[in-house]
Structure formats: structure tokens, C-alpha cells
């Protein structure tokens, strides 16, 4: 078995579902062609068996032992060919299924990485999850069934040619019956496509709802909202069920057509063959061969119907993938370089001096987030880094040098050490220093296994304050050139907040740091405070001086202290 592909030529520029499916097929053209060859030989080996059996029966009727041995050997050879090519066809089919499915995972994951913060703003969680849950299977099925579908067409053409050569009326019956059967099934495909599309949309919405409920379960229990959200989930689940039933109704009709229509064709061909045999127009062996062909045709005809069904599902799934692949990042990078220096948001006037522990206090929390997003290049804005516009720097360099850490950052399942040291380059002393600065040593000590202990999904075994301290420790372990923190102590008690403020100032001494906060305990440890109101800098200086000289600043900070 060949190994699966491990790399692809970037994210495809897929503008339609068919263009994406063609891109997938081009990237595995060799295995696809090989699979088509195996499938064609496999189908042909089965298609020739009725002819060989018919010749053998005629040899028995004529008491021709040499011919009987010859056709018996031919039947054995066809059985061997069928067995070998059947195994090879199945193996290459599995490879093509996996390659198409996980190539989709690769390009989707690569696109998610490229989009970064753009993705959650443009696509729901359920939509992305559904790509990995169901869409990859449908895309893999579409590529897999294409192999058998092409082989089935070759087998039907071969049988038709044999039948026409033996009996023109029987051959014409098959030649006319197959297209008629295909036309009879075609009207079912459009409503199936439409209903599958609606069902898939509802599944994505339901997945999003489920993810939101799980993520906010603690809050829901706190406010007594479990029953309300459970009822909403139940209602949406029933909508998905009803949509699934509508899809199943069309699929069941299609499945019935796969049995009924070929059966009618087989009955007609068998009746004609029996009539010709009774008239002496064909031999007994030919009658058996015709019946064998009629029975054999069930498989390739069903394969064609299955091909239409799975290609339709693959088209629907590819549309979801294309929707994600067609997104473009909200921000793009350039090719310039910057030695660093003053980081300045021109729109607001906020300037973060190198090596200074700076704080930004805003009249509303949204203003602080907007400033941090512009300084971290998560949204477009006129920002200078030294003498160079930030938007001219390569985006990976911006992410490496400027880190924005907020309270929406996630903790992932895995070993705590790996969670804190995401690059794997920090030593024990650096991790310990970061934990000390974030006052998170007690969390590690309480966790079975310590740093080598396992963290559950989203760090659900930790309280809100513990998760906040671990996120702060993770940011400090990275030790970026510029660290921007958004309310890093909002979920901890006052005693812990005072210790974190003092240790954070010492840990980031001489390093460029910006803290967006209204906490007096943190502000009192900063070197410089900037007050922003209405999107513009209104005052700046030392915390205690601003408290005494600027009433608006004092009102914001006092309100934060009282809360």
C-alpha cells in the first residue's frame, strides 16, 4: 500500500465545488488512473463470465470435451483475474478515498492557519467542525465512486456490444434501456442536492450551538439557563432531524430505483432471450449467457446510480470547503523589515515606548480591544513600528515579535508543559519564572503529575482565575519583543492581583509591555499610563498623578476598583 501524501502545493484557488473536486483529482491523477484500470479489468472479468459459461454449456450439449476444457479453463482464468484485480481495486480505492479526504483536511487546516483571527469572525465553529466530521467522507466517496463508475460504463458498453453481436434485438434493448433508466433517475438528483444542502447547513448550525453550550455550561448553570438552552438545542435538533428525513425520503426513492429499474430491464432481456431460444434463434448456452448478462447488469447499473448519488453529495460537501477556501485574511503582510522601536497607533495616538511598562486605560473595554488589535495587526490600522508601517512587515514576523494575549485565548488538551511552552524551546528555569510571575505555582502543584500532568479540553478542570493565570504564564514563557496584555488580572482576587502586578513588572523589566486594564493595583506598578476616551488619547503620565489631575481617568479607575 502506497503512503498517503504529506504535503500539497498550498491552498487551491477553488472558485466552485467542481473546480475543487477537479483540483483533488489532478493531485492524485496517477492513483486515480490506476484505480480506473483495475476497476475496468475487474468489471470486464465479471462481464465475460456469462459468455464463457454459455460457450461451456454449448460444448456440453455438443459433447465436445476439448471445447469444454478450454472454456472451463477460461472461466477459471477469469475468476483469478477477477480476484486479483478486485483486491487491487479495493486497495487503491481506499487509498484514493483517504487521499481525497485528508487532502481536504490538509488544505482546510492550512487555510485556517492562514486566516488566523479572520476565521472565527467569518465562519461559525460548527461549519468548520462539519468539514472534518462529514464533508471529508463525502468528498472521499465522490473520488472513490468515480473509479467504479467509469469501470461500470466500460462493462455496460462491452456487454452491449456482445449482445448486439449475438442478437441485435437484445443488444438494442440494453442499448436503449440503460439511457432510459438513467433519465428516469435524473429528476431525483436535483431535489436530493437541494435537500442535502439544507440539511448540511442545519448540521453546521447545530454543531455551533452545541459547542457554545459546552463552552458556556458553567455560566449557564450559574444563571439557571440550562433548560432554556436545552430547549433551543432540542428545537434545532428536531429541525435537523426533519431535514434528514426529507433527504432520506429522496434517497430511499433513489435506492428503490436502483433495484426496480435494473430489475425491469433484466426481466425484459430475459423474456426476449427465452422467446428467441424457444424459436430456435439462439442456443441454450446463449440463453444462459443472456440471463447471466441480464443478472450481471444489475451491479454496473447500480454502480452508475450510486455514482450519481455520491457525486451529488460530494458536490454539496465541496461547496462548504470552497466557502472556507475562498475567504481572504482581513489583514495581509508585506516584505519590509523593521529594527523595532516605538510602537504607535496613529488613530488613537497611543505610543508604546521600547523597554517601558505601559498601561492603556479606556472609557470602554471595546476601545482597549480595538487598540490592541491594531497594534497586534489583527485588524487594519495606521500603526508604525519604529520608522516602518506595521502593515508592510511580513505577518509571520509580526506574530513572532508582537504578542497580543487576551482572555479569549484557549487552553488545549494535552500535557501542561507543552501547553505552557508552545515552541518547545524554553528551559525549566524559564517556565518556573513565568509561573512565578503569574502566581500559578499552586496550580501546577495541585495538578497530578505537575508540569507533566494532563490538561483536559479547554482546561475545564481549572477555575476562571486559574485559566487566566496559566494563559499569562504561557505568554511570559514566549517572552516576545512586544507583549500586549488585555485585562490579565480580571478574574483573580485582589491579593493575587497585587502579587501578579508586582511580579509582572519585574519579569518584563526592560522589555516593551502594554497592559490594557483599569485595575489600580496593576496601574500603580506601570511606568507610564495612557488614558483614551472617544478613540483618542486624552491624558498620559504616572498613575497617581492622573488620579489627582484628571477626573475622567479617576472616575474610570475608581469604578474598576469598586467593582
UniProtKB/TrEMBL annotation:
It is found in: Cell membrane. It is a multi-pass membrane protein. Residues 33-313 form the ABC transmembrane type-1 domain. Residues 322-559 form the ABC transporter domain. The chain crosses the membrane at residues 32-53, 68-88, 145-164, 170-189, 259-278, 284-304. Keywords: ATP-binding, Membrane, Nucleotide-binding, Transmembrane, Transmembrane helix. The keyword S-adenosyl-L-methionine does not apply. Pfam families: ABC_membrane (PF00664), ABC_tran (PF00005). The keyword Nucleotide-binding applies. GO terms for molecular function: ATP binding. This is ABC transporter ATP-binding protein. It comes from Streptosporangium fragile.
